[in-house]
Write a structure and sequence with these properties.
The chain is mainly beta. It contains twelve helices and 61 strands.
């Protein structure tokens, strides 16, 4: 063909003839290749089909074509412009002669597969070393594995009839990506993998050490894979980056190469524990060894100490591959770069901290916060097109960022358990500064995209939260919002740009949403009442919060926090009320002032014997620092978790934890009874139970005498008898058989309409519960409830969320009942209390079967409750037991007490029931008087008939003055008995007990 062209065009005959003679490579050509800095070389003769075992990432400094035997000569005059290219091994000689080695042809290796001039349009230039040797001028580095050949062009044009290929192939071990998306020079070497790390936790989905995180290098997609034997993967040292302190813009960055730097130590090894084994990772065999699972990052990353290898900051490393090179047991063997791993992180910052000087792993429901996304090296753009979402944790969120099933793509901002927990809410600062919105509008309602909140233009970090930050609103009642039963996990999803495309979203961290739940005792082994939670008036105790190990870094559960107790009998106090209320030394002993709070009552982990590192107890880590509440009733437990030098500098950091009913009687109550009359009496209080007891002691005694077991109740002091009318025993000293302890009974579903001995009670259950409004819930009883407005009750068993109600939660049900489990109830000593109450205020109505309690929910989230009858026996007409309840404001003794002599101002003492029971409070005074003489008493017969039953009329004149006032004030029925003068007084009293007017 060339000879025909030469004959037709004599003026160009020499060029065509030269091309004809010098373009094709003789069949006996030899391919010779040497790796730089190595003794490895290949000589592939005419009898050799391929150079085998070359490696992607290696530097081949010598690549020569040799023509032995003198049949063909390289000369500068002819071959000075000769060039070489790498092509796919499937390219044939006819295709090469047809010009298919030119730039843009599909089988030509471009910059994505080979580096430097080899990937440029004209390929590598050459030099004639001798008549039989042509050497490439440029070092050859394969960026990808594959099966290649050399394409040779004597004149460097690779045009029509201007190229030939080597007979020998070059088989290169390594990862490749020939997908349609890999079109740039660094599409494989700089393929971006968006990963994340966590503070003091492994970055796996379950927070445990593992060899698989969301950081997975993938080459299993169409067009990608690996050539040659299976290799191994690792990573480089950390890239270095600096940022402008003022603007946050990237100032400099130094990448770290594969093979020449040791793998960064913030990523764990593969030996079953973080520091065990080595960083050389076997590819995942379950996907044809086409993925490399990067192990979890370390779980001790914390702080910002300069020069530390365990500081908590974003990082970037290169993903490195060993293409079956020397056993893949040394860093120098991992010579192929196959990606960039960006490790983002997210920090929870107090909303009032503009610099996020202190970061947290989560937040309690009380505190406002911001999210700060820390950017690795050059990962974040210097614009404000970034966005964030706080979404419910799911395993899908921990799929790799490139996985189409990654949950961040579809996650909804601010939705947990189907409920909106980041609603836009008006915030009114306590310091009088301008009000604004918490939880500013972010994503479109019900949509995973359309998000608005930007983190700014800085490249070192992005800060989200708007003007006043975020705050989780977990429910309407305090218990829902602050004391929910278990901590929640929230994932932080981030987008660097193009955020209306779901594939732009990926996970950059997670955070804990933690509750503030009271604990029953200072430690799990505390068996002394003084180490138990404050429960009873005048009984020393502690206040503490549960902080499981996973919540150790949560904002709102810090150590060195401050405590404040505020009386709040109507349960109206909120966060601002906590801030505005002061300490009251008359209300709480020990915790009596700001000074005491900041010295002896700081919230600390318990390291004493026995230790308990999962509780923050407000005792400055000393069991002797107990708190004694001196007034029964509901109190607000307040705390400040953000302190400086043990001082709550910012009043907005005072927060309500919970309400707690301190059980005990109201004081200064009075009773007056007559001598020789068997009587019973009731008293009022808070949190009263049927396990409480009463002891009446002498007027000169004290209820706390004799180590809270007063010894002056004996008959000699009080003239009292008990268990009357029969056997009517004298009260003895405390060591005797009858120390004078009077049992009491409170009204409840199980103790309704009891007899005078508090026995033979009826039941009166709740049949219906209906939430009426934001503040009230209606209760319907089987029988007249007998309670008054202002009384306090709790609800009990057989009350549930209505089946199928999507709104009602366990927290709502618990809040309704007013009885709460301590967070450590399942793990305390067994003697400490398991529950506490914050009783509900009762509101009576005109209908004696209906009452209301002061708790409700808004119409948009109003739960439905139902009563499920227990133990029903329809075959015998028994409907079972309905909703149970207990009235805590009033208790009554049995009718069993009688005094035989006058006594003034006897002291009535109260003892709580249960473990550690003792007399801790004086309820009031009791006076015993001889009855006034019945003046002008006459008995008149109404019929003269003998042996015929007929009414008899008794008349008398009541006394005047103070004595007569008793008749006016009496609320109950009077009793009378007619006894012969010779009848013993005790027998006469027995008759009175059975007689009523």
């Amino acid at each position: 063909e060339l000879r025909a062209l030469a004959a037709a065009n004599p003026s160009r005959r020499l060029q065509y003839v030269t091309t004809l003679e010098d373009m094709p490579l003789p069949d006996n050509h030899v391919l010779y290749m040497v790796e730089g800095g190595s003794t490895t070389s290949w000589t592939c003769s005419s009898f050799c089909t391929a150079i085998e075992g070359a490696h992607a990432g290696a530097n081949y400094t010598i690549l020569e074509i040799k023509i032995p035997g003198g049949t063909f000569q390289f000369v500068n005059q002819i071959h000075r412009d000769a060039r070489l290219k790498i092509v796919d091994n499937t390219l044939t000689e006819p295709q090469a002669r047809d010009g298919q080695c030119r730039v843009g042809e599909p089988l030509v290796a471009e910059g994505s597969e080979v580096s430097g001039t080899w990937g440029e349009p004209l390929g590598s230039s050459t030099s004639v070393l001798s008549t039989d040797t042509l050497r490439a001028d440029d070092t050859l580095v394969f960026r990808m594995g594959g099966n290649y050949r050399l394409c040779y062009s004597a004149n460097g044009t690779f045009g029509l009839l201007q190229a030939d290929i080597t007979r020998q192939r070059i088989e290169v071990n390594g990862v490749f990506d020939r997908s349609d998306s890999c079109t740039t020079d660094d599409c494989l070497t700089h393929r971006i993998y968006q990963c994340y790390m966590r503070r003091e936790e492994f970055n796996t989905a379950d927070g445990r050490y593992g060899l698989q995180s969301s950081c997975i290098v993938d080459y299993s997609y169409p067009g990608a894979g690996f050539y040659g034997p299976i290799g191994r993967g690792t990573w480089s040292a950390e890239f270095d980056a600096t940022f402008d302190e003022q603007t946050g813009m990237l100032a400099s960055m130094q990448a770290q190469p594969c093979a020449f730097t040791e793998p960064a130590s913030f990523i764990c090894r593969d030996g079953g524990a973080c520091q065990a084994g080595d960083p050389y990772i076997e590819p995942d065999a379950t996907v044809g060894s086409r993925r490399i699972n990067i192990p979890t990052t370390r779980n001790d990353l914390f702080g910002n100490a300069f020069g530390s290898t365990t500081t908590y900051h974003a990082r970037t490393v290169a993903a490195c591959y060993c293409p079956d090179r020397d056993g893949c047991t040394n860093t120098v063997d991992f010579i192929q770069q196959i990606g960039i791993l960006h490790f983002y992180l997210s920090k929870v910052c107090h909303a009032g901290s503009s610099t996020c000087a202190e970061d947290f792993t989560g937040v309690t429901g009380q505190y406002r916060f911001r999210i700060r996304v820390e950017c690795p090296t050059n990962a974040c753009m210097n614009n404000d097109e970034n966005r964030v979402k706080l979404v419910e944790k799911s395993l899908a969120n921990d799929l790799p960022s490139w996985d189409a099933g990654n949950g961040c793509r579809t996650g909804l901002h601010g939705i947990l358990g189907g409920l909106e927990v980041l609603p836009t809410t008006l915030y009114v600062p306590i310091d009088g500064s301008p009000q604004g919105n918490l939880n500013e509008m972010n994503c479109d309602p019900g949509s995973p995209i359309g998000c608005r909140l930007s983190g700014g233009v800085r490249q070192d970090h992005k800060t989200f939260g708007g003007t006043y930050g975020f705050r989780f609103v977990m429910g309407t009642t305090n218990h829902e919002a602050r004391g929910f039963h278990t901590s929640k996990e929230v994932d932080v999803c981030y987008c660097n740009g193009d955020c209306n495309v779901d594939s732009s979203w990926f996970k950059v961290g997670s955070m804990r949403l933690s509750s503030t739940r009271l604990v029953s005792a200072a430690t799990s082994r505390s068996d002394l009442p003084a180490q138990w939670s404050v429960e009873f008036v005048n009984q020393p105790g502690i206040i503490g919060l549960y902080r499981p190990y996973a919540d150790g870094g949560v904002l709102g559960l810090q150590e060195n926090s401050l405590l404040k107790l505020v009386t709040d009998k109507d349960k109206q106090l909120n966060d601002d009320g906590c801030a505005l209320s002061g300490y009251n030394s008359q209300f709480s002993q020990g915790l009596s002032s700001e000074v005491a709070a900041s010295t002896n009552y700081l919230g600390e982990l318990q390291t004493q014997t026995p230790p308990d590192l999962q509780k923050v107890v407000f005792n400055s880590n000393s069991f002797v620092n107990t708190i004694t509440v001196t007034e029964a009733g509901t109190l607000a437990v307040c705390y400040c978790a953000v302190t400086v030098d043990s001082i709550c500098l910012d009043s907005s950091n005072w927060k309500l934890i919970a309400h707690l009913t301190v059980k005990g009687p109201q004081i200064n109550q009075r009773w007056t009874f007559s001598t020789n009359v068997v009587f019973r009496f009731s008293y009022e209080g808070f949190g009263l139970t049927s396990g409480d007891t009463i002891r009446i002691i002498s007027s000169d005694g004290r209820c706390t005498d004799d180590n809270f077991n007063p010894n002056t109740a004996a008959f000699a002091y009080t003239a009292l008898k008990v268990k009357c009318p029969v056997p009517c025993t004298d009260v003895t000293l405390t060591g005797g058989a009858e120390p004078g302890d009077l049992s009491t009974k409170v009204l409840s579903a199980d103790s309704y309409n009891c007899d005078v001995s508090n026995e033979n009670c009826e039941t009166n259950d709740i049949t219906t519960i209906t939430v009426l409004s934001d503040t009230e819930t209606e209760l319907v009883f089987q029988k007249p409830h007998g309670m008054m407005t202002g009384d306090e009750i709790t609800l009990g068993a057989n009350i549930f969320c209505s089946p199928g109600d999507p709104v009602c939660t366990e927290e709502m049900l618990t809040a309704l009942k007013g009885a709460f489990d301590f967070a450590d109830a399942a793990g305390n000593s067994g003697t400490a209390p398991d529950t506490y109450i914050a009783a509900q205020k009762f509101i009576a109505s005109e209908n004696p079967l209906i009452g209301r309690i002061r708790i409700g929910w808004p119409s948009i989230a109003r739960p439905q409750f139902t009563v499920v009858y227990a133990g029903a026996r329809p075959e015998i007409g028994y409907i079972g037991r309905g909703g149970l309840w207990t009235h805590h404001s009033r208790a009554q003794t049995r009718e069993e007490v009688m005094a035989t002599a006058e006594r003034a101002n006897l002291r009535v003492c109260w003892r709580f029931g249960g473990n550690g029971a003792k007399y801790v409070e004086e309820i009031g005074k009791m006076t015993i008087r001889n009855p006034a003489t019945m003046l002008g008493a006459t008995i008149s017969m109404s019929s003269p008939a003998r042996e015929t039953p007929a009414p008899m009329i008794l008349t008398f004149t009541t006394a005047g003055g103070v004595t007569g006032m008793r008749y006016e004030e009496a609320q109950d029925t009077s009793a009378v008995a007619i006894c012969h003068a010779a009848t013993p007084p005790l027998s006469c009293q027995s008759m009175i007990a059975q007689s009523r007017l």
